[in-house]
Amino acid sequence: MFDRPSRSLPLLALLFIVPQSLFVIGDYIAVGLRFPLFRVQLVFQGITQPDGSLTTAITPSIITIIKEIQFIPSGMVGPVFGRTAVATYVWLAGLIVLLAAAALVISWQVLDNPDHSRYPGPLIFLAGGLFLVWAVIQFGVFFSGPVGYSIPVGVPFLWYSGYQLIQATKIRE
After folding, report:
1. What is the pLDDT of residues 43-55, one digit of tens each?
2. What is the 3-state secondary structure (H, E, C) of 16-83?
């Protein structure tokens, strides 16, 4: 799968396009998709009209990882070392590892540098593990808790891609 640049670079792009997690915050206060570089979420708000009726407003938002990191010192997500902040740090670590793996794949495939062929597979495995740890920190051991729940849909894809990279490395050696 990753043995030729014509196939590996589009698959590498998929690692950043496939959502890593579906999540629900609270009792459906918000739902969303978490991608490596950003998250898309819908926030549901009950609005009482002047006549006393209740309507629901749905606010969509795209929150980049940069914006999410800016939320931490501003206090929007709670304490600087609270659960959400630590989960954000873990997600950022997973993103950095995934970007490093992508750079090594590009170096290996495009620049034909075989010295960089050993590392991307294990790094992609590690990134998937860090994204899984994010879900455990944020939502609980079973990806569910009082703050909501998460379904880590993209982690198996990352692990499979890491496995394929390791296999491609063995073929080249």
Report:
1. 988 778 888 888 8
2. HHCCCEEEEECCCCEEEEECCCEEEEEEEEEEECCCCCEEEEEEEEEEEHHHHHHHHHHCCCCCCCCH
Predicted confidence (pLDDT) per residue in 145-158, tens digit? 888 899 999 999 99
Are the C-beta atoms of residues 30 and 42 closer than 8 Å to each other? yes
Number of domains in the chain: 1
Can you give the residue range of the structural domain that contains 126? 5-18+66-172
Q: Is residue 57 part of a domain?
A: no
Tens-digit pLDDT profile for residues 57-98: 888 999 998 888 888 777 766 666 677 888 888 999 999 999
Question: What's the CA gap between 109 and 26, in Å, rounded?
Answer: 44
